[in-house]
Amino acid sequence: MGKKKIVIAVTGASGSVYSKVLFDQLIKLENQIEAVGVVMSDNAKEVWQFELGNQDYKNYNFTFYSKNDFNAPFASGSAKYDTMIIVPCSMGTLGRIAHGISNDLISRAADVILKERRKLIAVVRDTPFSLIHINNMKTVTEAGGIICPANPSFYSLPKSIEEVAGTVISRVLDLADLEQQSYRWQED
Ligand SMILES: Cc1cc2nc3c(=O)[nH]c(=O)nc-3n(C[C@H](O)[C@H](O)[C@H](O)COP(=O)(O)O)c2cc1C
């Protein structure tokens, strides 16, 4: 399998630790990856500061794009990005994607991934869900996207918040067809 070009979008839902754990894992998997483009919403940066108490996303050696930069390669289908992971994905971003409102780079990149029939993975986070949220998840699923909720599992007996978040991120990496070492039920 060829190396992947991946877009990571971080939005303002709770759960910045999920994006941190994904960033850390992608560094380990760099031999499978050609490019990682990252775009963060304004609220994503605020929530990261609030929940993790730092701005460490600035230390990652990925290519960061401003949320209004429609010159980013993945704003067009011609750049042929394989996969987009939105982690965590707010209900606001989910709604914009479900309704084709491409008014920032995150919703435009998702629009492109769906129209090009490539892989969109949305790690949605809120609880409980309204019917509007559920219908938007249905719409994105019907359009070919994958809703992978930020619902951790506990059967691997995680011992830290990062390990709890890692139970979701390892499913995301599986969905993105990235080979990784992770806990597998009844195999370890
Ligand atoms: C600390 C904090 C936690 C939040 N958690 C959630 C959440 O879990 N899910 C959600 O949909 N929105 C959440 N929000 C609200 C979103 O940040 C807000 O709706 C924002 O406009 C979403 O836009 P974005 O997707 O462009 O970041 C939270 C906001 C804050 C400040």
UniProtKB/TrEMBL annotation:
Residues annotated for dimethylallyl phosphate binding in this entry: 155, 171
One protein family per Pfam: Flavoprotein
Assigned keywords, A-Z: Flavoprotein, FMN, Prenyltransferase, Transferase
Residues at which FMN binds: 12-14, 41, 90-93, 125
Domain Flavoprotein: 4-174
Enzyme's top EC category: transferase
EC number: 2.5.1.129
Residue ranges of coiled coil: none
Catalytic activity: dimethylallyl phosphate + FMNH2 = prenylated FMNH2 + phosphate
Sequence similarity: Belongs to the UbiX/PAD1 family.
UniProt name for this protein: Flavin prenyltransferase UbiX
Native source organism of the sequence: Pedobacter lithocola
Lineage start: Bacteria, Pseudomonadati, Bacteroidota, Sphingobacteriia, Sphingobacteriales
Name of the gene: ubiX
